[in-house]
Amino acid sequence: ITAFPANVTSITIGGVTYTATGGNGTTTFPAGGVTIPAANIGSVSVDPIDGATTVAIAFSVTDNAGIVSGNNGSATLPFGPGVADLAVQKNGPAAVQAGSAITYTLTLINNGLSAADGASFSDSLPVGLTGVSASCTGTAGSGTSACAAIPLTVTGSSVTGSIPRFPSGGSVVITVRATAPATNPAGPLVNTVTITPPPGIVDPVPSNNTSTVTTNVGTPPTEADIAVIKTGPAAISLLGTVSYVIDVVNGGPGAANGSVFTDTVPAALTGVTWTCTASGQAVCPAASGTGNSITQTIATMPMNGRLRYVVTGTAPAAATTLVNTATVALPPGITDPNPNNNTSTVNTVVTATPPTTANLSMSKVGPATVLPSGAVRYTLVATNNGPANADGATVTDTFPSALTGVIWTCTASTGASCGAATGAGNLNLTLPSFAAGGQVTITVTGTAPTSGTFQNSARVTTPPTVTDPDPTDNIGGPVITTVLLAPADLVTTVIIAPANCPGNASVNGVKQAVDRQKCPPGSVAPGQPITATVVMSNVGPSPAGNVVVTLQLPPGSTNVVPSNGGVFNPANSTVSWPAIAFVPANTTPVVTYSVTFVPPATGGTIRSDVTTPDTEVTLSNNPAVATISVTAVVPPAEPIPTAPWWAIALLLAALAGRSLRGHSSGQSRPRQRHAL
Fold it and tell me: On the chain, which terminus has fewer CB atoms closer than 10 Å, C or N?
């Protein structure tokens, strides 16, 4: 082998491993190459870099006489694409005041198993936001690019960026800030973010690559779901460094300004220091501090605001168990719909036997919005990024009390096992085996309440014999979900009448009555034009967007003239009107359209319909149908003339008198005499 191959991190030849120490140009590979006896020719293996699809190994051949062959060359090894389940969770307020600040948080996650270096994301911002800014506010997972290395591009309509180093178990938090419209917009603000794997990486679960938040502009309610979740080592060596990570999150829908966070660190932990970082437009009361008693009043804590406290200290010199509980409490006047998530506890065993090390990570995604009593689905992914096994690790998730009928299923891969394949209620799952590189996926379903906002986070914890060197990625979430109103309910009606019927026109602004003898409903003469009128309404309690009204005519219809910018497609005999960006709730009618046309001689049916990408109460009333009958016009028979009785009597009398006169003159005629 004459040179260290490109696109690899190491090459093993005859049991000896050579690595790249500073990139492909600087290696531990001998300058003169490595000689392999012919008997060991099959003992070469390589570890390609993430995303590499081929590796070329250059070689030369020397015979038994020491003569180097002229047939030198290279062997190319193909590799399949890497596999990484990328996911994104977006959180934002369910409601904000007009003209006030609005903050979105984007959590970008690599559930593994491959790295996804160069993964990109795009956040499409709703129209009406002003003063848009974005920043990276946190990364987690060993080897993930620092915020300073993550480039962001901000325009008035989008925020885009890429993650140079994105290992399995890594996550990145992007915070987007803007100002809501100064007046109520025509509809809610809809914001969607998408994460895309880099070339050479296949995402086996693309369904979690997008996340959407819908925000109404108005006055937020005075209710806030404040929560705290804490993670830390399950085991630590004597005099080892203990690190706790504590997240304080406001799930809204209202602000939680004035909430009080408390963490009383065990007295056995010495040299305690802490730091605070904020996201989601929350503000840390202080950036850092010292001491075992931490009490902070959080003056600014809007919905989706999060404070992350990292507390560190030195374990005692004697074996013991450290119990550390953090709490958060709302200020007076604010109601907490779920007080069960206001405390969180971590137990740490201090042992004389040094524990092994395993870097565990947890991710969680779920819906930002849900319909009243709608289905809620969470996906939790726990990964052991090694190097040691973590058999006996636990996955815990205390679900919101507002969520009912909670059930879950668990699947495992790559040396992991679930312990239980299914369950109901809160999750406290011990994993009997959790090998390095292992992964567990838990799918949770439940039924949402009829109103309000709720939040949920999950965590993974090492067993007592294993310590986690990086607890920052042990918490999955938070997922903050807002219950929407019942959806829109769009409906159409269609009526038809011959176009030249008396009454189809207005006289002096007054609609004339239709002569139903000459113009029976739905019936026209051959070649006679007809007018169809379509009325579309929204009888539901929520608005709808991108609404399209259509009218399908009988095939063979001619002389089609739609109103209001409708377009006729003769290929499918359908008239389509331009999309309506926003249809308000409880509005009848929203629009009225008409089409004049000549139906075919055979008649037929017309069908109106309305569609929207939004959810509806029912689709059964979207279409309406009317039937056209084409019949020949038969002129009515001429009526028999009639006369008054007295005229008939006079006529009869006159006829009778004439007959009598003729008879009398014949009898009285004098005889003629003849002379002899």
Answer: C
pTM beyond 0.70: no
**By CB neighbour count within 10 A (0-12 exposed, 13-18 middle, 19+ buried), where does 34 fall?**
middle
CA 291 vs. chain centroid, Å, equals 43
Nearest alpha carbon to residue 545 among 582, 572, 495, 575: 582
Could you tell me the maximum CA-CA distance found in the chain, to the nearest angstrom?
190
> What is the token pair recorded at 258?
């004035």
* Of 102-111, 301-310, 468-477, 658-667, minimum mean pLDDT range: 658-667
For residue 408, list its beta bridge partners. Answer: 423, 444
Strand 82-91 and strand 201-202: pairing?
parallel
The CA-atom distances, in angstroms, between 328 and each of 247, 256, 257, 273, 370 are 10, 11, 12, 19, 27
C-beta neighbour count of 64 within 10 angstroms: 6
- Cα radius of gyration rounded to whole Å, the chain: 41
Structure-block tokens of residue 627: 């039937």
- Give the bridge partners for 162, in sequence order: 120
DSSP, collapsed to helix, strand or coil, labels residue 665 as helix
Q: Residue 553 gets which letter from DSSP?
A: P
Per-residue pLDDT at 52:
62
What is the DSSP secondary structure assignment for residue 662, as one 8-state letter?
A: H
Region at 403 (left for phi over 0; alpha for psi -120 to 50; beta for the rest):
beta
3-class SS letters over 339-381: HHHCEEEEEEEEECCCCEEEEEEEEEECCCEECCCCEEEEEEE
DSSP 467-510: E-S-GGGSEEEEEEEEEPPP-B-EEEEEEEEETTSTTSSEETTE
